[in-house]
Design brief:
Length: 800
């Protein structure tokens, strides 16, 4: 039987196992067999093991002879205990006696499983399973009786570190971590042989109980005990695995055991193995169709996320119980906190708030959204695990581990990057201070680990290889890493505030102009790009109103079109002065020009500058293009108003597009001072006339303020902050977040503006939405709105 093929075809592996058991014992109760299979064979890997074993040896359920998987032996034992008598009991491979328990695939009893060795007591060659205190093997007849450990020797070893340690305290701590006389003897032998194990060398202890003894003595108040760090990474964390004569932490153990995956070839932790014994990583194991089961919720073959009495559920169909969250008070899907036992919704589980006790940005576990408490500041509840409080060795702040706090670990990484000689470059000290105060230092460490180019750039700035100014950063290639480092330097106050999009447009124009070989044509393109487009853009922008990507992108298209025309003329040996209308018509008819509108603007500018005599007439706007229908628009608005699963920022941004026809470039620049809360309600200003917000939208703004209370974004003036938080989000990222909600900002804005142009006169539309009056008139004409009678009534003139 090919189990992989079976899984991919959609058959239930458990049903196949149940069918084979019922084929052996037709009188067995099917429900009892199903419960036994579900209790023992509870994973896909175990199901495959059982099916493979039964496919290779169908007689296993009848004779019980190994080799066979351990899970099959456990299933056979459970079936026999539930009155399925026809199923054989697992048998020893040596003497064929029935077994009451199984271990491994080669089932055997204790007598047959132990190899024959020379007994140190009687000298006979017998099956030996135990060692004495000297480490010699003993047969069952000569097995030594356990002796009491030498507690005096253990106390003497501890007193070499803390002379005031009490024997009763040492003995109690040792008995707590090492139950059983044999374990206690091994612990005493290890510590007395090397007392320095208690001074930080416990990672090299022969038994793991030494690690636990260090913690137990520390809790008991014995001074001088030092928790060991991981020999590989140096972190003071729990050491769980023995490797190469040392105990390693879980992360280093995964790195040591990593191997190339047989499918993707990446070096990762081995999650499972295929039928040939080759290693498989976790992602390849989860993508294997043989590991999928049919979800009882959606009916698709997917990896199992949760098992219910009704059957397996995938990640999309898994539903958490509805609980009343103790933090926000909302009734929503969630789970109970393992620390407090109180219900907590998914949104609050993902929040990171400023703790009212320690002032750190951490996950809230108790309190309220206005006054949250982290895990360290949450009082211990009966029946819940107790969190330890430690002090950072560098700054003394409270944290759950004895190692350095996240901020100090970040400073330990960035300070060498900013150091010249033996001290940090003075100009970069504000950057070091800003990074010390960052609320999420772990994110910065991850970014630096994934961006080697960022580390190299910081070293060059500190060493002076790159000038510490906007002009110096302009001299190196413009990459995402350079842009982000520039934003951080501006946020930290190292560099002055600048218009990022305008500066990048200037650099692009310089490169575009420099690419023209002919000096005369280069001068023409420079005049068109700088003295026409760039001058107009500078007149519309400033420090309070920086340029946007939506303003810079059309200018690039205009300059590209002009450069393409000049390049075409240069290839044919002509100039703008020689250009004739017939040439333009030929280009347009032969589709030799990609941007007709941009070409027309360039030729009209050249004609005004008396560089040519031809031009392309201006194309009148034909009205809106793609837009959503009226019902879709309001359905989208209802979802944004009432769907609590969508982040509040995304809901507000989408509503400003759907209801008020705002662009992503304008939404990103909204600040809280654009809102006016008075007795009459909440108003927002897009243009010159404030707009009254509906109560539902105003409540979302109040909810946004409440969610940010105590977070690192509480002090930002921007309604939609980016990263860092003292700068607004980019228009592209805002459009991307709305697109994740299946929302097209262009289509939604077009539908909203089309409807508003029908309901409002052009002047009021321009003042309320902040658009140009000419654009408002064009939209009113496209929407076929007739407001002449309104204008006449306003002026006191009778309409014709």
């Amino acid at each position: 039987m090919n189990t992989e093929a079976t899984g991919s075809a959609g058959a239930a592996p458990r049903d196949l196992i149940v069918q084979q058991v019922l084929a052996v014992d037709p009188t067995a109760d099917r429900a009892t067999v199903e419960n036994a299979v579900a209790a023992v064979v509870n994973t896909v890997a175990r199901q495959r093991q059982v099916l493979r074993a039964l496919a290779d040896r169908p007689e296993l359920l009848c004779n019980g002879r190994p080799p066979a998987p351990q899970v099959l032996g456990e299933l056979m034992l459970l079936l026999r205990r539930t009155s399925t008598a026809a199923v054989a009991a697992p048998a020893c491979r040596g003497c064929a006696r029935p077994l009451s328990s199984v271990r491994g695939s080669a089932w055997c009893c204790d007598r047959c499983g132990a190899p024959e060795r020379e007994c140190a007591g009687c000298g006979q060659l017998r099956r030996s399973t135990r060692r004495d205190q000297a480490g010699s093997w003993r047969c069952p007849r000569c097995r030594p009786l356990p002796e009491q450990p030498d507690w005096a020797a253990l106390t003497a070893a501890v007193r070499t570190i803390d002379s005031s340690a009490e024997p009763a305290v040492v003995r109690t701590a040792a008995r707590r971590v090492a139950p059983g006389l044999f374990r206690q003897q091994a612990l005493v032998a290890a510590v007395t042989a090397d007392p320095d194990l208690l001074r930080g060398r416990a990672a090299h202890a022969p038994v793991r109980t030494v690690l636990r003894l260090v913690d137990s003595l520390t809790e008991a108040g014995v001074a001088g005990m030092v928790r060991p760090g991981c020999p590989h990474c140096g972190r003071v964390v729990a050491l769980v695995k023995w490797h190469a004569e040392a105990w390693l932490c879980a992360r280093c153990d995964r790195q040591v055991r990593a191997a190339p995956c047989a499918q993707c070839g990446k070096v990762r932790e081995v999650s499972s193995r295929d039928r040939r014994g080759q290693p498989l990583c976790g992602p390849c194991h989860s993508r294997n169709p043989a590991n999928a089961e049919r979800c009882v919720g959606c009916g698709h073959l997917r990896p199992v996320n949760n098992r219910t009495p009704q059957g397996p559920l995938c990640a999309s169909c898994r539903q958490s119980p509805l609980l009343t969250c103790t933090l926000c008070g909302e009734r929503a899907p969630g789970n109970r906190s393992a620390l407090t036992g109180q219900p907590r919704c998914r949104s609050c589980h993902a929040r990171r708030l400023r703790c009212g006790g320690c002032g750190k940005i951490r996950a809230p576990h108790s309190g309220t959204l206005k006054d949250p408490r982290c895990a360290l500041c949450t009082p211990a509840q009966p029946g819940t695990p107790r969190r330890r409080r430690h002090k950072c060795p560098s700054c003394g702040s409270a944290q759950p581990t004895e190692s350095a706090c996240p901020s100090c670990r970040l400073i330990a990484i960035v300070q060498p990057l900013l150091t010249v000689g033996d001290q940090v470059r003075p100009e970069l000290v504000p950057l070091l201070v800003w990074w010390r105060r960052v609320d999420r230092p772990g994110s910065v460490r991850t970014w630096l680990a994934r961006r080697p180019a960022a580390k190299a750039l910081l070293r060059d700035l500190a060493a002076g290889a790159v000038e510490l100014s906007h002009e110096g950063l302009d001299q190196i290639p413009d990459t995402k890493t350079v842009r982000y480092v520039r934003r951080i330097l501006v946020a930290a106050g190292v560099l002055p505030t600048h218009d990022e999009h305008l500066r990048r447009l200037e650099q692009w124009m310089n490169r575009a102009v420099a690419a023209i070989a002919d000096p005369k044509q280069r001068t023409i393109l420079y005049r068109y790009a700088v003295w026409y487009h760039l001058r107009k853009l500078r007149a519309r922008t400033g420090l309070e109103k920086p340029a946007t990507d939506g303003q810079a992108a059309p200018i690039r298209n205009h300059v590209r079109a002009a450069a393409a025309v000049l390049a075409t003329l240069a290839e044919s040996g002509h100039t703008l002065a020689d250009l004739r209308q017939a040439d333009i018509d030929e280009w347009l008819a032969g589709h030799r020009v990609a941007r007709r509108a941009e070409l027309g603007l360039f030729l009209r500018w050249a004609r005004r500058e008396r560089l040519t005599t031809v031009a392309i007439p201006v194309q009148q706007w034909a009205g809106p293009g793609s837009r959503i229908d009226h019902d879709h628009r309001w359905a989208l608005a209802r979802r944004l108003l009432h769907d609590d699963a969508v982040p509040t920022e995304d809901r507000l941004a989408g509503l400003l597009v759907v209801l008020y026809a705002q662009t992503a470039a304008r939404i990103r620049l909204l600040r809280f001072d654009h809102l006016d809360s008075g007795s009459g309600g909440v108003r927002i200003t897009f243009g010159t006339t404030p707009i009254d917000l509906p109560p539902a939208v105003a409540d979302l703004f109040a909810r946004l303020v409440a969610e940010r209370a105590g977070t690192d974004r509480a002090a930002t003036p921007w309604i939609f902050p980016g990263r860092p938080w003292n700068q607004p989000i980019s228009a592209g990222m805002l459009r991307k977040r709305l697109a994740a909600l299946s929302m097209s900002t262009h289509a939604a804005r077009t539908a909203a503006l089309f409807q508003l142009a029908v309901d409002l006169p052009a002047g009021l539309l321009a003042r309320c939405l902040g658009i140009d009056i000419s654009s408002a008139v064009d939209w009113q004409r496209a929407a076929a709105g007739d407001w002449h009678a309104y204008a006449a009534r306003t002026a006191g003139i009778a309409s014709p």
